[in-house]
Specification:
Number of helices: 5
Helix content: 25-40%
Oligomer: single chain
Structural class: alpha+beta
Strand content: 15-25%
Length: 235
Amino acid sequence: MVQTRTGTQKKTKQSKSNATKKAYKSKHTLRKVLSKPVRFDPSSTSGPNHNATWPTGSALAAVGEMKTNQIGGVPLNADIEELGMAGAKYYLAAQFLHKNISDSSSSSSSSTSGHYISFSGANTVNIFYKDPVTGKVYVLEAKGGNSGLGSRTGVYVKPGTALTQGTLDYLEDVANAMVNSGVPAKVAAGNDILNAIASGKIEYIGVQTKYTTNASGGGAFTTVTLSPPKRIFWV
């Protein structure tokens, strides 16, 4: 005798089959990742932590030098410049790119990618950083205290014309001066800046770090209060 399945038997078997498929799918299906993976950045493995809370160790060190030097009657220009540099590095790392960026271990290296390179003096930018992943170039003009933006007479760009710091004309003229300096680190950074300007992969940012003291009338002070670094231009 040929047995036939009743409607109830068919439904029961189908229910078991669906349950088995559901269990298998639950067990073998990959789970969706809910958070973005953290990208490893080789530039964040060493050096001062410019992505720490403000004020950073570098900023506090500059303040310490200010206190010491004002007691000895030493001009504070270099210390204020260092404070500006510390503020600018903090701004880019913590407020703009949200990652730590280490300082270059050598000021004479021609390798420009993945770390801060700092320069001082005329005919150069303050701070250079090239992202090793995106290839984008970041140039920082660092201002400490009440220092304002400067200007220069164009040599390579609009010769004889006054160029204002914070403009691409100014930056391009300075970058050309760096290329012609003969200093390997400046030459390499200058070339990278010019290439970035030409390709549109440049971020030119000015950052000012102000401070107040408990001195009255410009006398000796014992405390220094730092303001958070503030962007004053972005081109």
